[in-house]
TrEMBL record:
Coiled coil: none
Compositional bias ranges of the Polar residues kind: 326-336
Keywords carried by this UniProt record: ATP-binding, Hydrolase, Nucleotide-binding, Transport
Protein name: Putative ABC transporter ATP-binding protein YxlF
Residue ranges occupied by any ABC transporter domain in the UniProt entry: 7-236
Top-level taxon: Bacteria
Length: 336
């Protein structure tokens, strides 16, 4: 067991009608950890995070924050959590300073405490010079900073951040990521994102769910140990024939499609005994069949490989109503 756990999920389960979004999920996050919380769309991430903030009660199991159970009556536990949902519910017609003051009132903070908290979060989130602006006039990056400021306003010990960099430009992504790293010096943080390099950059440990179930929990380096050598190839090809050709290569096994793109582009991966020999055979075979090879590369043990390996069997087993929207896929594949 992790010592001094600030977040504890014990057998969490939640259903929406006939859809079982989360199934017996258990893990812990220790004080001071910055943990990546990952899964394909529809895996149950948002539902799990809502149960960990007390905004949704589980059908089974229990969630504990800062040693206090989140049971619907636990005001103390909810006060210990700052939550930034993926779609930040801001009052866009309000000015930033009035909105944050309102947040403080909701937390039951007196005027002096609200003033001190305001100064603290404006400094922490680099909002100086923007507090008189109406929220709807801000860029998305600055709206995200306001969302973080509201999550920090009551000075919680735990932060749960759902896709904090979604839709931001590269510069804003770096700034929000750097802000999260700074906050991790004094907070326990659970970070959900689809940007896997971002997780590799800032997190030492990841928790992965798929199909509403826990499929991995550990340090990134530990989870990648033992992965078989592999190569991937991106081609314009017919899927069934591509998988058959790769599966017939001597020294290759477990051919699968890991990404799809426009104009018939497919990215396939195979495990290999000798990656150099099999890569040469794959290149010759696909070239002889007239397939256009766009990329052929050796796959090193990365978080992306861990993610694909651990989620590919369960990625579409269930759908989390909170994590689906038109145009979003409910599987583990990425595009090429």
């Amino acid at each position: 067991m992790i010592q001094a756990a600030m977040i504890q999920a014990e057998g969490l389960s939640k259903s929406f009608g006939s859809v079982r979004a989360v199934r017996q999920v258990s893990f812990e996050v220790a004080r001071g950890e910055l943990v990546g919380f990952l899964g394909p769309n529809g895996a149950g991430k948002s539902t799990t995070m809502k149960m960990l903030t007390g905004s949704l009660l589980p059908d089974e199991g229990r969630a504990t924050v800062a040693g206090v159970p989140l049971d619907g009556r636990s005001i103390g536990a909810r006060a210990a959590v700052g939550y930034l949902p993926e779609h930040t519910p801001l009052y866009r017609e309000m000015r930033v300073h009035r909105y944050l003051d309102f947040v403080g009132q909701v937390h039951g903070m007196g005027r002096r405490k609200r003033r001190d908290a305001f100064d603290r979060v404006v400094d922490a989130c680099d909002l100086e010079g923007y507090t008189d602006r109406r929220i709807h006039t801000l860029s998305k990056g600055y709206r995200q900073r306001v969302g973080l400021a509201q999550a920090l306003f009551a000075d919680p010990e735990v932060l749960i951040l759902d896709e904090p960099t979604s839709g931001l430009d590269p510069g804003e992504i770096v700034r929000i990521r750097d802000l999260v790293v700074r906050l991790a010096r004094s907070k326990t943080i659970m970070l959900s994102t689809h940007v896997l390099p971002e997780v590799e950059e800032v997190c030492h440990r990841v928790v992965i769910i798929a199909g509403g179930q826990l499929v991995a929990d550990g340090a990134i380096g530990d989870l990648s140990e033992g992965l078989a050598a592999a190569i991937s190839v991106t081609v314009v090809a017919e899927e069934a024939e591509l998988l058959r050709l790769l599966g017939d290569l001597p020294g290759a096994s477990r051919p699968r499609i890991v990404a799809r793109g426009d104009a018939g582009r497919l990215r396939a991966m195979i495990e290999v005994e000798d990656r150099f020999e099999v890569a040469a055979r794959a290149s010759r075979t696909l070239h002889d069949r007239g397939f256009e090879i766009l990329e052929l590369r050796h796959e090193v043990p990365t978080l992306e490989r861990v993610f694909l390996e651990r989620t590919r069997m369960l990625g579409s087993a269930t759908v989390d109503p909170d994590e689906t929207s038109p145009g979003r896929t409910e599987n583990t594949e990425v595009t090429v």
